[in-house]
């Protein structure tokens, strides 16, 4: 119609056939624009819903599905790595309970959160004696 190619699928109105540059623009607009971040099948269904299609749409959809699968695998590997690092670190950490009448130092940053101390000032404040323990470990 009027020099524009249309496709008439079953039970759907006419779909305008897009050139490769127009298809790329449509993908970017739907992905970043009006529909937010969508990947895979839903992205292509939304483009179809808007009334557009291009001949290599199914190949592009399959490659995006593969990309989504690779992202999921990468995320799973990162989570597993973080858990291993956490276990390794936590093996070496042994919490020490505080007892009454024990003498401790206090970090100067805690008592002065604005950082108005002098540059060469001590990191620790003078020793304090613990009078009462509220939550023993």
Q: Short summary of the structure?
A:
This is Integrase zinc-binding domain-containing protein. The chain has 137 residues and is α+β, with helices and mostly antiparallel strands.
Give a description of the structure.
- By secondary structure, the protein is of the alpha+beta class.
- It folds into 2 domains: 6-92, no CATH class; 95-137, no CATH class.
- Helix content is 45%, strand content 13%.
- It is built from 4 helices and 5 strands; from the N terminus they run ββααβαβαβ.
- It has helices at 20-32, 41-49, 57-92, 108-111; strands at residues 6-7, 15-17, 52-53, 103-107, 124-129.
- The chain has a 3-stranded mixed sheet with strand order 1-2-3.
- β1 and β2 form a beta hairpin.
- The longest helix has 36 residues, at 57-92.
- It is elongated and about 90 Å long.
- The model has no long low-confidence stretch (mean pLDDT 78).
Order of helices and strands: EEHHEHEHE
The major sheet is characterized as: 3 strands, mixed
On the 0 to 100 scale, the average pLDDT is 78
- The number of strands is 5
Strand content: 5-15%
Shape: elongated
The total domain count is 2
Helix/strand structural class: alpha+beta
Number of DSSP helical runs: 4
- Strand order in the largest sheet: 1-2-3
What does the radius of gyration come to?
31 Å
Q: What percent of residues adopt helix (DSSP H or I)?
A: 40-55%
Return residue spans where pLDDT drops below 50 for at least 5 consecutive residues.
Answer: none
State the end-to-end CA separation: 78 Å
Protein name: Integrase zinc-binding domain-containing protein
